[in-house]
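# nightly structure sweep
# worker-07 picked up a monomer target from the shared queue
# config: single-sequence mode, recycle default, output format = structure tokens
# input follows
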Amino acid sequence: QVQLVESGGGLVQPGGSLRLSCAASGFTLDEYVVGWFRQVPGKEREGVACMHSVGVAYYADSVKGRFTISRDNTKNTFYLQMSGLRPEDTAVYYCAADPGLLRLWKFRQGDFWGQGTQVTVSY
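# output follows
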């Protein structure tokens, strides 16, 4: 089955850390741009971070210096390490993959999307 499966969300206190994982099955991530997006009710889905197949990463201004995207092609998995979490980071986080950087990062269109995982930052 061709899919992306996310894991790692949960409840964390402000200032804490979480790592999200996104495992691909049924296809190989090597040539894909991979990314993380988030959405809160009533708002559009926004880009958090993405990484080109050659390892170049892009981040939303709101998460620069706090979040790190990485990929392990040997495990067909990519990650989002989140630290210094803030209440405004609370959202459903989605992973995605697409052959095109512009299509994924600018137009939020991807061949594959994960099911979403809730991240809640609160006391």
